[in-house]
Amino acid sequence: MKVTIENIKGLSKDLKVLIDKETMNSYVDDKYEEIKGTVNLKGFRPGKVPKEVLKRQFGKAVFGEVLDKVLKETSTKALEENKIKPAGQPKLDLKTYGEGKELEYVLSITEFPKVDTKLLEGIKFDEYSVKIDESETDTRIKEIAKNQPNFKDTKPETKAKEGDLIAIDYNATVDGNEFKGNEGKNTQLTLGKDLFLKGFDKQLIGLKKDDEKIVEATLPENFPEKELINKKALFNCKILSIKQAEEVKIDDDFAKNLGAKDLKDLRSLITKQINDEFKNSLDQLSKNQILKEIEKIKIEELPQNLIEEEVKILSQGMSEDEIKKNKKSLEEKAKIRIKTGLILNEFGEKNQIKVNETEIQNEVQKQLRMMPGQEKMVMDFYQKNPSAVASLRGTVYEEKILNLIKEKGKPNKKDISKSEAEKILKEAHNHDHDHENKKKETKKKSELKTATKKKPSTKTAKSKPAVKKTKKVSKK
């Protein structure tokens, strides 16, 4: 095999590949030997069919298979030997081919640009460490205790008030008629939470044990009996019991009920929980800083075919007019994304970063925990969509790369308080929000500018004297 590199223009080049006649003939002979033992032709014993007979019967098909095999093997070898990584599918142009002839073809290639990943070592970014004050931990524990009250029985003459836990029996009707599910026995309600029906709770405030009252409420949009939706129902309620909330004592027993060893262990767990809530968001800010620094790295030339493909992805859902108006900004955004991707990928390859199946499954499990009650739907989605799994793999891969860049980088370590962390995150959120608003405002101005360029109405045109303008000569 002889390979010649020609027509080098930036990232584009041609590889002329020549396979001599003798090599091609040996490939063809090997194929005939392979099929000889499997062909059954009348008048010949198995494995004894002459080559000339096989040629007459299967010549075109055999050469077609041989040609495909040789093209795949030699083109792959030509790229590997010349250390060329094509950006996209190379274009193959057959020049000379045929049985008993040499094979000559040209691979037209757009190559990935060379990337210097040394610039990523020692990259600067802010790394935050949040110090959680003991008072903030205590406040969070008190909030938990408040949401897990103990209830104690009250005296018979006690009137129900907001926050009390009551038990009721009820029987409901709509327009005097009973309906499916109209009865409830020993139904428990915490007054003031309005979890049963809107406005239902407050009508029971002030009642005592064994009191009865007709409560009026509107049946909701999600009521099972569709014909009764938004209908007014009358509930004949009887108070069975009234319990008052008592303050929960925050001690070791309280901590154990929450799964901690003791109160000291609970404080430690809650402190870590608050810290983790900020850590993920602040870590993302650090990674965003790294990505911004990567965007500053210069690459002389990017593959045009990749830019065009990325523009197609970015412009999905846009009309042709919108694509034309935003062509320049779409191309700039595409270039940034491609450049960042190339740099990260090259860094990942040089550092032999891999993503295994366990890591993919861990990421899926993380998403399942974020969507309680929809686990089956999420699992089905990934099982039926290989592209979604590939996207997930890409996310994990990028995350591992950024983590390694952080390890090799030069962090500007900052110890901050919880309030400072909240301020930093709020400013980052507002910055992103302002950036989106500016984009929308720019789009509006562009649309307004386009609108004002329209021709004036007939009435306006007639009210002004016609002025003949000199036609400009094109520079073309």
How are the secondary structure elements laid out?
Elements: E1 2-9, E2 12-19, H1 21-36, H2 51-81, E3 91-96, E4 103-110, E5 124-131, H3 134-146, E6 150-153, E7 165-173, E8 183-190, E9 212-218, E10 232-246, H4 252-257, H5 263-296, H6 304-314, H7 320-325, H8 327-350, H9 357-370, H10 375-384, H11 386-408, E11 410-417, H12 418-452, H13 458-462
Parallel strand pairs: 5-11
Antiparallel strand pairs: 1-2, 2-4, 3-4, 6-10, 7-8, 7-10, 9-10
Helix pairs in contact: 1-2, 3-5, 5-12, 6-8, 8-11, 9-10, 9-11, 10-11
Features:
5-stranded antiparallel beta sheet; Trigger factor, domain 2; Alpha-Beta Plaits; Chitinase A, domain 3; alpha+beta; 4-stranded antiparallel beta sheet; 476 residues
- The CATH architecture assignment of the largest domain turns out to be Orthogonal Bundle
Quantity of strands, as a count:
11
| Rg, Å, rounded | 37 Å
CATH topology category name of the largest domain:
Trigger factor, domain 2
Estimate the global geometry from the Cα principal axes. Answer: elongated
CATH class of the largest domain: Mainly Alpha
The number of helical runs is 13
User: In total, how many domains does the architecture comprise?
Assistant: 3
How far apart lie the N and C ends? 47 Å
The run of helices and strands is: EEHHEEEHEEEEEHHHHHHHHEHH
Helix content: 40-55%
Q: Low-confidence parts, pLDDT < 50 over ≥5 residues?
A: 442-476
Largest sheet: 5 strands, antiparallel
Mean pLDDT: 84
Sheet/helix structural class: alpha+beta
